[in-house]
Amino acid sequence: MNRTGDGVIPPTAPAVNAYTTARLLLLSFLATILIGTTLLALPVSHNPEPVHVSWIDALFTATSAVCVTGLTVLDTGTTFSRFGQGVILLLIQVGGLGILTFSTFFIVQRQGRRGGMEISQRLLVETAHGNLSRVTPRHLLTIIVLFTLGSEALGSLLLWWNFAEDFQGLEALWMGVFHAVSAFCNAGFGLLPDNLIRYRGDWGVNLTIMTLIILGGLGFLVVADLLTQLRTRLAGKEPRFTLHTRLVLRTSAWLIVLGWSGILLAEWGNRTPDHPSASLILESLFLSVTSRTAGFNTVLMDQLTNTTLLLVIVLMFIGGSPGSTAGGIKTTTLAVCHAVLRSRAKNRPKVECLERTLSEETVARALMVVGGYLLATLCGVLSLQMVEEGSRAFHETPGNSLLAYLFETVSALGTVGLTTGLTASLSGAGKGVVIMLMFIGRVGPLLLATVLIGETRQVRFSYPEESVNIG
């Protein structure tokens, strides 16, 4: 018999169809979006004197919430009632963790400790959060729920305490809960018309939001490994982190520091004489953190330099880490691509990273993810240009329109939610393009390709090798 960490699997257990699992994941997101659209289109979801909420606007908002993007065509705080805001918050929570995570968690808990986890349930967990090497599915699911609720509860209390200076009673509490959940799920939805610009110099709000963003973007496998190694350290033994954990922590730290430094340098000459240096330092750090799929902003994006916007585009493209609430190509994908270039530059026969050899499958998946995102970005920019600009000549379009469309496309694909102001002015067709980009960015190019192409079969032969001149 073969054993998983969570039960015994008989040798006669049926093979699991990865194609069916991927399709189920896609359908769960689609169903959640449609339910959310219907609820947000109801009159009870709007304020007594609302801006008209069309079906396309309700669909856009629901998709943005489920895909934890944060792009909005309507002001969340003034357009939607408390019921509508609650629907958005629930969509963010379900979309951030994944509806299959919730359903599998309750299935596993209902089975109890005596029942083993089925292969299909294990595959659902691995599809959503990655390969399980040191943790059982039951343990991981428990960590996900407890860590999420604990982080959001603590964040809500801290933000409540900060917001209490400007808001009264339950309103301050609701502000804290909404922004804490939105930050941890890397959604970027806010209830204030200016997002968090009024708190640009508030260290309490900024540090709390940044911490929640980072915790939500690490990935639950990393959190599980950190907790396991902490117990190992307390037991007096030497902790041994997985390669995945080490890559995520190192890459995330480098991206925050390099992004912070680059933005600070690019914006130093752009600040006004009355703009304090300490405030610019905090704003640059916040932008470096939030650009990796969170979407909150403490500065107006259209007031930044082109250099800063390009840096933000790069950070949005990379995103967070696998198995987290974040989007993008992921930090480990960037680390693997860096390892490929470094190993090839050293003329090493295998791809090496942190004294480990990476499998060919890992390298291939990383390259496919990057290639998929680049192709989706190109298609997104072209589509937005065609539906928004039409047949206008180059001299008839605004000077920075191409950069704005590129920024909007990468923000949607990376499920970030930052915008230079283009979102609110999109046509119906443009909103449709962005909706598709947000959905593709959330489910991932590889997962979407699995559903569209179908189940792959192992090929038992190979063609003859032949060289091609490169460069």
Strand content: under 5%
Structural class: mainly alpha
Oligomer: single chain
Total strands: 4
Main pleated-sheet profile: 2 strands, antiparallel
Folded structure, characterized:
The protein has 471 residues and is mostly helical. 62% of the residues lie in helices and 2% in strands. It contains 18 helices and 4 strands. The strands form 2 sheets. A two-stranded antiparallel ribbon has the order 1-2. The chain has a two-stranded antiparallel ribbon with strand order 3-4. Strand 1 and strand 2 (7-9) form a beta hairpin. Helix 1 crosses helix 2, helix 13 (306-318) runs parallel beside helix 16 and helix 14 (331-345) crosses helix 15. 44% of the residues are buried.
Annotation keywords:
single chain, 471 residues, mainly alpha, two-stranded antiparallel ribbon, two-stranded antiparallel sheet, 18 helices, 2% strand, disordered N terminus
Strand and helix layout:
Elements (H helix, E strand, L loop, with lengths): L1 E3 L2 E3 L8 H24 L13 H12 L9 H4 L2 H16 L1 H13 L7 H11 L7 H27 L5 H16 L18 H16 L1 H15 L8 H26 L8 H14 L15 H13 L12 H15 L6 E2 L2 E2 L2 H30 L11 H13 L14 H16 L1 H9 L18
Antiparallel strand pairs: 1-2, 3-4
Helix pairs in contact: 1-2, 1-4, 1-6, 1-18, 2-4, 2-17, 5-6, 7-8, 7-9, 7-10, 8-9, 9-12, 11-12, 11-13, 11-14, 13-16, 14-15, 15-16, 15-17, 16-17
